[in-house]
Design brief:
This protein is an all-alpha fold. The protein has 10 helices and no strands. Helix 3 packs antiparallel against helix 4.
Length: about 300
């Protein structure tokens, strides 16, 4: 088993969250709240009402959980590639289909770890009330990540934390398959024959474009996931499940709503995944050079 990739993925994921969280907050609000009509309007409204703190609501829990989820994705991906290589014959190079399948498995595997933290993150990001509001202003429903977590469990039971897990899996499976396939393909194109490792410029560019490609595939299901997670948080529940949510969304807002947040997703994805892959590659190379434990 390749152990270094679990550690490297963990570090890369945390650094990526630090870079991209404000963009993620804007994305979630555009997807779930009709009061926000676009990226610029959402940013201006958030600053006016909540200050810059509004962009970082719910960040503490994702920073904690993303180290685990990113570790699962990268570690599963690398070990799946190793298993598929062995199936082809010892030392056989991985095919593009191997990369796609390994990314798909990695994306689906992380859902069990990611879903509770993602549920809390979305609820807090969509909470536009400010703690600094006056006596006549509405107060936020949740006081922080732990209070939000416990409130969901009290109201909906532990399974409430996994509302939206199915669309999350349907988003992350194809998204990460595309993500890793794009990264590997672009790195190969930019790496001269005979050179074992891609240059850092190749890593940065491939990582950025891989992030954009992954989100281009995952954005429609990301909209459905966020809506199911927010359903019932402010008023009565509207959706009976995944299919009903898709049908109601198309009926009331049209197909275009599934791509409303694509711009902010791509804008966020490029710098975030430049950082993720740069930290991942650096960590893996350091661990291997220093003779750290890389296999079990």
């Amino acid at each position: 088993m390749h152990i270094a990739d679990f550690f490297a993925g963990s570090f890369g994921g945390v650094c990526g969250v630090a870079v991209g969280y404000p963009f993620d907050t804007v994305k979630v609000r555009i997807q779930t709240q009709k009061q926000f009509s676009g990226i610029k309007q959402c940013i201006v409204k958030t600053i006016e009402k909540e200050g810059f703190h509004g962009f970082f609501k719910g960040m503490s829990l994702p920073v904690t959980t993303i180290s685990m989820t990113s570790s699962v994705v990268f570690g599963t991906y690398r070990n799946c590639l190793h298993c598929l290589s062995q199936l082809h014959g010892h030392g056989a190079p991985n095919t593009k289909m191997d990369i796609f399948l390994a990314g798909l498995v990695g994306g689906v595997m992380q859902v069990s770890v990611m879903s509770p933290g993602d549920m809390v993150k979305v609820r807090l990001q969509c909470q536009t009330e400010s703690m600094r509001g006056g006596s006549g202003q509405p107060k936020p429903r949740y006081h922080g990540p732990i209070h939000c977590l416990m409130s969901i469990i009290r109201e909906d039971g532990p399974l409430g934390l996994y509302r939206g897990a199915l669309p999350l899996a349907l988003r992350d499976g194809p998204s990460f398959a595309t993500y890793f396939l794009t990264y590997q393909t672009l790195c190969e194109w930019q790496t001269p024959a005979g050179q074992k490792e891609p240059k850092w410029t190749a890593v940065l560019l491939a990582g950025g474009f891989a992030g954009m490609a992954g989100w281009s595939v995952g954005t429609p299901m990301d909209v459905i996931k966020a809506r199911l997670q927010m359903d019932g948080a402010r008023d009565q529940k509207r959706y009976r499940g995944l299919v009903h949510c898709v049908a109601e969304t198309v009926r009331t807002e049209g197909v275009a709503v599934f791509f409303r947040s694509l711009g902010i997703n791509c804008l966020r994805a490029f710098p975030v995944n430049m950082v993720v892959f740069a930290v991942y590659e650096l960590t893996v190379r350091v661990l291997r050079k220093q003779g750290a434990v890389t296999h079990m």
